[in-house]
Design goal:
This protein is an alpha+beta fold. It has one domain: 2,3-Dihydroxybiphenyl 1,2-Dioxygenase, domain 1 (Roll). The protein contains 3 helices and 8 strands; from the N terminus they run E-H-E-E-E-H-E-H-E-E-E. An 8-stranded mixed sheet has the order 2-3-4-1-5-8-7-6. Strand 6 and strand 7 form a beta hairpin.
Amino acid sequence: MKLSQIRLLVKDIHKSVAFYRDVMEFPLGFFAEEMQFASFNTGETKIEIFSRQNMAEVIEEEYLPTGAEPQSKFLLTFAVDEVDEVCARLKDKGVVLLNEPHDRQAWNARVAHLRDPDGNVIELYKHPL
């Protein structure tokens, strides 16, 4: 398992893209407005931003409006060779998945999500499909 990116879950994708691109001066690698997703080239580990509302839908978490808590604010993304295999091992260790491994065609990836003991979201993915 290899940490591939840290994904910040943001309220306003346009403000966040402008901040990381223009203020922090990270090169914008990819921006998909329809997916509310952007990726910045920051070296070996990328920083990505993604709409909180969209991620709430992916992990079936109730989306809470501005100012309400708790709402996931970031997730750790790990690239794995086989999502299903890793998830089976984790389930054997008592991990409860937020969603079973599934293909996300728009992301060109197979993914699954879980939480660590403090409630932080972890994404396991294999890209491309």
